[in-house]
Amino acid sequence: MASVPANSLLDPDVIAHAEMLGLKAREVVEGYMAGEHKSPYRGFAIEFAQHREYVPGDDPRHLDWKVLGRTDRAYIKQYEQDTNFVAHILLDGSESMKYASGDLSKLQYAKTLAACLSYLIMLQHDAIAVNIFDATVRESHRRTDNRNALVNILNSIAAYQPQAQTDIGNVLHDLAGKVRRRGIVLVISDLLDDEDNILRGIQHLRFAGHDVVVFHVLDPYEIDFPMKGTVELIGLEYQPRVIARPAELRKTYLAEFEAYRTRIRDGCQKSKTHYVLANTAQPLSEMLSGYLAFRLHTTRR
Amino acid sequence: MYFLNPFLLFGATAISVPIVIHLINRRRIRRTEWAAMRFLRASIEKNERRLEIEDIILLILRCLLLILLALALARPTVRRGLGALGGVGLTPSTALILLDNSYSMGATDGAQLRLDKARKAAEETLDTLPGGSAAALWLVSDTAQPVIPEPTRDLNLVRKIIREARLTDHGSNLLPCLQRAYENLRNKAGARKELYVITDGQVLAWQRWSDVLQLLNDAKRSICTRVIIVGDNDEQNVGVSDLRLAGGLPALNQPLRFEVQVTNFGREDLRDVRVTLSVNGDPPNDEGAIEFLPAGSAKSISLFAKLRTDGFHAVTARLPDDRLAADNRHSAVVHAMKELRVLLVDGTPGRDARESGVFFLRQALVPVSPVEAPQYFIKPIVVTPSELPTARLDGYDVVILSNVFDFNPDTATSLLQFVTRGGGLIVFPGPNCNRAFYNSTLAPLLPATLGEPRGDAEKQENIATLQPKGYEHPIVTLWNDPAAGTLATAHFYRYYPLTPSTNGAPVTVLRFADESPAVIEQSLGLGRVLLFNSTANTAWNDLPVRPAFVPLLHRALAVLLIRRDENLNIKVGEPFAWRLGLEFLGKETAVITPTDEKDYGRVELVQNVPTLRQTHTDNAGVYDVSVASDPPLTLRFATQAPAAESSLKPLTVAELKQLGQSAQVLHYPQEMALRTRIEQEAVGSEIWWPVALAALLLGAAETLLAQRFSRSK
Fold this sequence. Notes:
The complex is a heterodimer.
Chain A: H1 6-9, H2 12-21, E1 37-39, E2 47-53, H3 65-71, E3 75-83, E4 86-92, H4 106-123, E5 127-133, E6 137-144, H5 148-159, H6 168-178, E7 184-189, H7 195-207, E8 211-218, H8 220-224, E9 231-235, E10 242-244, H9 246-270, E11 274-279, H10 284-298
Parallel strand pairs in A: 4-5, 4-7, 7-8, 8-11
Antiparallel strand pairs in A: 1-3, 2-3, 5-6, 9-10
Helix pairs in contact in A: 2-4, 2-10, 4-5, 6-7, 7-9
Chain B: E1 2-3, H1 16-27, E2 30-34, H2 37-73, E3 76-78, H3 80-85, E4 93-100, H4 114-128, E5 134-140, E6 144-152, H5 155-164, H6 174-186, E7 192-199, H7 209-219, E8 224-229, E9 238-245, E10 255-264, E11 270-279, E12 286-293, E13 298-306, E14 311-318, E15 329-336, E16 340-346, H8 359-365, E17 378-383, E18 398-402, H9 409-420, E19 424-428, H10 435-440, E20 448-450, E21 464-465, E22 491-492, E23 498-500, E24 507-511, E25 517-524, E26 527-532, H11 549-565, E27 569-571, E28 576-579, E29 588-592, E30 598-602, E31 604-606, E32 609-614, E33 621-627, E34 633-640, H12 653-660, E35 664-667, H13 674-680, E36 685-686, H14 688-709
Parallel strand pairs in B: 4-5, 4-7, 7-8, 8-35, 16-17, 16-18, 18-19, 19-26, 27-34
Antiparallel strand pairs in B: 1-3, 3-36, 5-6, 9-10, 10-13, 11-12, 11-14, 14-15, 20-23, 21-22, 24-25, 25-26, 28-32, 29-30, 29-33, 31-32, 33-34
Helix pairs in contact in B: 2-14, 4-5, 4-13, 6-7, 8-11
């Protein structure tokens, strides 16, 4: 696949729709700057959050003297602090992402999605860390909130070419182990891998306190399997080729595929992970704005 | 089971088509990359076995379908029993109807002719044919006339032609007609091939009986033959079997004796059979009666007529009407001559008339008193051999050479041309003859060579005499009747032994008692040559002074002339050809047949000779011919039906039984309705449509299964 100019990844229509909505962190995220998102750190900011009992080592400056005076108990006064978050964008760059029933491949769709999300996140002064992976992380951009770095990131995304099979679960586990600060993990993948591993990886991320969103990128042909006639299907990830009459197999295929999606979806639901189906037949702006609107609606402030 | 289009069985090789299509499709398979392979593989693993079985079932169905289609196109056919078992109805047939129109079919039972019954039987036969059948119609006698040569589905046309079928005066001989018919039918497509022979069952029609049976037997495997007999067993019939000018020359105003032969073909003796003779359709000139005519025998009666003008006269002998009218009259055409000019070439003129070598010939040619001689129709002219080269031969009808030594080769060539054009030549050798000249220069002309003379005319020893009986040649048959005298009393003292020529077809007219030939004749072109072996005077024999010499000479002249005119009387069906002068070339001709039909034509060149031809001679009787020349030329000829056809003797019960082993024999109209009988014997049914139906069902099953199998699983 020829590399795509970085600018073309930023779909103006997507940006226009999503910019209004923004990407809000659903849960507390740990950032370095004051920002729009709740910080897990309490204490010294503007908005009171709660009292807690003083323990040795606490800065006596945060003691609530009024409570101490009235009740003779030492309480520390805590305040909510807004911060920025780090969004880890995990873009699946495996061979299976090359599939396209029409002009638009899943990878292209996913790249555009990743680029738009990166732009949006940086636009709201949050930081992003982009990783393109297959069985392992192939391209990695360290956390940054510098908008000037966006161009490099986009160029890197645009230039990426798939090389190998995927191993999503492994990549997710690695990420969960490496990233200490809680943030948002945006997984953009077709998830064509062992779903148990994938779900375990997601749980690991969740356990580490990350807000995980899974964008399941699928081609409409993979969803509906509408092919006719006799077709020789060549596996993209080194599977043996198969000659089949898809029309005759459609029912069984769809059952298998739907079961797989159900398992993924249920697993995500179980681990309180947003599962978003990204059908490449659906305009990206529509899909993304739909999700962001949903997220905005469900995010506690 | 056999196939009508067996070569179409090769279509079964089309079963390779689905396989080839499958292979081609493999090459034409759309290729695409696919990511979600694990779900596809899971699906395939679940359905693999079933898909394979479904594919095999569809492949088998498609191959079977093609095989059945090839079978159906090859038109499989089963015999009657199998067809009935299969519930298959009558299939269209290809029928050839042979309708006998020989003249025995003109026999009547008092109400209708046999031909009328045959027409009805033929029409009923058409009614029995299943829908979609085709039929051809041939009129048969001793020849086949394919009026509808090839089977047509337009059965109304066949009916029309059947109704218009007319009698001919041909005899009957079915064997060649059957051979042609079977050959024709074998080349036709169709499951049911049927040959209908509608005839009167006359035994004469089934000549070469064993060959006929063999032919029917050989054909019965593929062709169903039905013989429909419309005749009855009444074979009583009497007919004129021959009419000929019995003696003398057809001279004007002379009483001419005609010999009328009447045959009783029945099984009962007849008495007082009256016979009349008329000329040119006038009231009878003469009549007579045969007092007793035994069953199965023939008798001749002599009747006389006079011809009043020169030219062509139709002489007709008639019997009273009976059940077969066609043979109750018999016509012949006689070419009457006003005068007969004979050139006598005298090799030994002598000093006076009595010493002339042709003295006796002259007396015999003009056997009347000197006063009546000028009016006598034979005009002899005597010349010497030296005058022969200057004689204009075309002015004579007959040339007689008597004891001529020799003459130059040019004259010999002229004489040969004269004979070829229709002249008559009689040669009497004698002591004066140059034998070498006769055996070499005249060899192309003469029917025999002359050997070393035998006998001694002076001593009159070792006398040879002519055969006393057993005369076969028309010139001498008269003397088979003892009342006419005898030739055996003539003495031959010296003669040339004759050795028949090997070139032509010499016929011995007379023999000596020791069987050696005495007179030999030979036809040459349109003429004829008669060679005696001794002198025309009494130098070597005493025949010229015998009473038989005059009739012998006159009959010889008659035979020479008849040769020229014998084309005037031909058999029914033979083409008539009459040579004419160059001035007639291209002239229009009109021929009025005995049935008053008119045929028009032109005088055309045949072998470089202007010839008037008439090929349509299917009816016996007199044909009047006129040529549009100036002045108009008219002539007549007559055709005679074969006398044997008058015998109405039917096939015997045993013969019918033999016939029934190879063919279905039906008697019309005595037997039950033809339709029922024929349908009972329906032979051979095509089973292509059940096969095609099976193919159709298979096709439908294939479509349904293919649709079902291709449903998403």
